[in-house]
Amino acid sequence: MGVKWLSVGALLLAFVAGAAVAEATSLTQGSLYIGRTDSANQVWVGKRRIRVSDNGTFVMGFDRDAPLQQHYRLVFPDGREELKTLELAPREYRIQRIEGIAKRIMQPNSEDLVRIRAENARVRSARKQDLAHQFFAKPFIWPLTGPISGVYGSQRFYNGEPRRPHYGVDVAAPTGTRVVAPADAVITFAEPDLFFSGGTLIMDHGHGVSSSFLHLSRLLVKAGERVKQGQVVAEVGATGRVTGPHLDWRMNWFEQRIDPTLLVPPMSEVIAQERVER
Ligand SMILES: [Zn+2]
């Protein structure tokens, strides 16, 4: 993606007169865009041909710092092409300071590094999957309710040192609290003890959209299992690089990091609703 694709996009714009229409949407950095087209058409994002389902549904996601102008290309059965443009609203991200992280976690030794690389490769390959399911197209639910202790995109400082931004939403809850699948999914990764993320689950919602749960104390499902929205899949823990028990829920569209909170109602509304129902 990036500059290379943008210049190709500009060329296409010049050739396909009047075909590129900026669509007015409420998309932002970190959001997921679900589109519809004729199922006979191809959809390309940069050099990636993305899956179009039988009913014409396709999806793409935009990273934390994604360029505000995004393009995709429709290729019709007769070979004609049309460039589409999506405008993203910019986001502002918080700064979060975390102290008290163990030295071994801050400065992994060479053995740890070997392990971390191997784990990262396995996580990446789970996120590369492109399953035909369209579970992402239905509304998501929160995996649990509780105070939000970390938000998507915040710039993090661990023991004063700047580190990668935080990509998940953290919900604080005691160890052992049950967490449910936020949408139907196929479990593509289930490991009890990764170096940074501890007990880790990856749930695939189709077309490259996946949820990851981190720092779990207990996994209740296995890789390959099909789970339903609302099904208990794991328990909250404090495993990996954490300072206390919480669920870290992350979402991806392939390698692009998505903000899960854009797919669910505000936590305050869900908690208020729970009180009414009790
Ligand atoms: Zn987190």
* Separate helix tally: 4
As an assembly, this protein is single chain
**What count of structural domains?**
2
Q: Give the CATH class of the largest domain.
A: Mainly Beta
Mean pLDDT: 89
Q: What is the CATH homologous superfamily assignment of the largest domain? A: Glucose Permease (Domain IIA)
Q: Which stretches are low in confidence, meaning pLDDT under 50 for 5 or more residues running?
A: 1-25
The sequence of SSEs as H and E is HEEEEEEEEHHEEEEEEEEEEEEEH
Report the portion of residues in β strands.
35-45%
Ligands, deduplicated:
zinc ion
Shape descriptor: globular
| Rg computed from alpha carbons, rounded to a whole number of angstroms | 20 Å
The N- to C-terminal Cα distance equals 49 Å
Structural class: alpha+beta
Any overview of this molecule?
With 278 residues, this protein is of the alpha+beta class. The chain has helices at 3-15, 103-106, 110-127, 267-277, and strands at residues 22-23, 32-36, 42-45, 48-50, 57-61, 69-75, 81-87, 95-98, 148-150, 155-158, 161-163, 169-172, 178-180, 185-194, 198-206, 209-216, 218-219, 226-227, 232-235, 246-253, 256-258. Strands 9, 12, 14, 15, 16, 18, 20 and 21 form an eight-stranded antiparallel sheet that branches. A five-stranded mixed sheet has the order 1-7-6-3-4, with helices on one face. A hairpin with a 2-residue loop joins strand 10 and strand 11 (161-163). Zinc ion (ZN) is lined by residues 150, 166, 168, 170, 248.
